[in-house]
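Internal ticket - ligand job 303, NAP:
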Amino acid sequence: MEVGFVGLGNMGLPMARNLLRAGHRVRAWNRTPERVEALVADGAQRAASPAEAAGAGVVFTMLADDAATLAVLGGPDGLLAGLPKGGIHVAASTLGVPFSRRLAELHRERGQQYVAAPVFGRPAVAEQGGLRVVVAGPVEAVERVRPLFRALGPEVFVVGDAAYLAHAVKLAGNFVMTSMMEALCESLVLVEKTGVERERFAEVLNAIFRSPLVESYCGLLLERRFEQPAFRFRLGLKDIRLVLETADETTTPLPLADLIRQHALEGMARGMGELDFTALLRIVEAHAGVDGRTEAAQGEPPR
Ligand SMILES: NC(=O)c1ccc[n+]([C@@H]2O[C@H](COP(=O)([O-])OP(=O)(O)OC[C@H]3O[C@@H](n4cnc5c(N)ncnc54)[C@H](OP(=O)(O)O)[C@@H]3O)[C@@H](O)[C@H]2O)c1
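stdout (structure tokens):
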């Protein structure tokens, strides 16, 4: 299949590469053009604009957020102008529910199709073709693009025929993961303050939960590779804001999400936006008065 791909960040690049590996022809565009080069070396065609990428008839977007997606839509070089009638926009980013509804409307007005397909899994999982794809959109459009999802991961969950439903599921899933991370950060600090090594506690947790996700987050929090962002801190704040936006819209109290948003805001205020979101641990440590000691013990400069 011929497919356009717009947005080659931490997630978009490995996803587009897997589409190529699966034998699809990829036309790629990225705001920072240098990022397209690696993919061209793998056999992709460089698109001069989002419109040219969308000319493929099916186009993925994997951009930071609602604003970034909006930025590639409009004007003569935009995705909306380039996507033919009946063409399909597959939005794989984590977007807000109201914005996802608006996208559906914009495409409907132009006789185009829109499928939401946000993904679970960090960049390393994307590289291995191990993403979980949550899909929603008109049945016929979903079936047309389903073969593309096989290149991205082993499991596809179709959650409805209104596209925004997939974004609602993705946001709720992210809320669970972020809450787990907050609890892991707090409990790692707690056990350490009582005199138990964090690593020993993580062994116990992994035995209890036997969850690849818990194991992966425990590993990330112990390794403290905050300076190598696989999921940027500012995107973590974006996601929790979108969770709360949906909570407001549906009158659903989410006190835990409020707390996490405050911690994420504090991280932004401390200039942590470009770190990995697991740097949330620094905020929890700072509240417990152990930040300086822990950073020094880990051999990282205190900040
Ligand atoms: N990283 C993860 O673990 C993960 C997992 C699941 C889902 N997600 C979601 O997937 C999406 C992408 O995440 P990522 O980690 O790949 O982010 P990222 O590495 O920060 O990449 C962001 C992409 O958006 C582009 N972009 C940002 N603002 C733009 C604008 N105004 N106009 C045009 N392009 C713009 C960037 O272009 P430049 O290269 O020019 O900056 C880049 O291609 C996000 O919605 C995120 O929440 C991430």
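Auto-summary: The longest strand covers residues 155-160. Strands lie at 2-6, 25-29, 45-46, 58-61, 88-91, 113-116, 119-120, 132-136, 155-160.
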